[in-house]
Specification:
By secondary structure, this protein is mainly beta. 0% of the residues lie in helices and 61% in strands. It is built from no helices and five strands. The protein has strands at 6-7, 12-26, 31-35, 39-42, 48-64. Strands 1, 2, 3, 4 and 5 form a five-stranded antiparallel β-sheet that branches. A hairpin with a 4-residue loop joins β2 (12-26) and β3 (31-35). The chain is globular, with a radius of gyration of 12 Å.
Amino acid sequence: LLRKDVVNYKVNSAQVLIKGKLKFIKGDGTSFIANAGTSYLFDSNEVHGIDEVYEPSEVIECFTPMRPEYI
């Protein structure tokens, strides 16, 4: 995972970092560091992104409702 852009989806996003270490930023200026095993939620239209990649990482993302581009 090498993405360092910010995104906002029209759906809710639940994510689990299964490997690595990442620093996430949010549109309100806050940030948090996620380690392997960390789970987190982003509401629909919540601006967020990866600010720092500390280690090679793998993330599982789940969206509700399903993102139409994945159909």
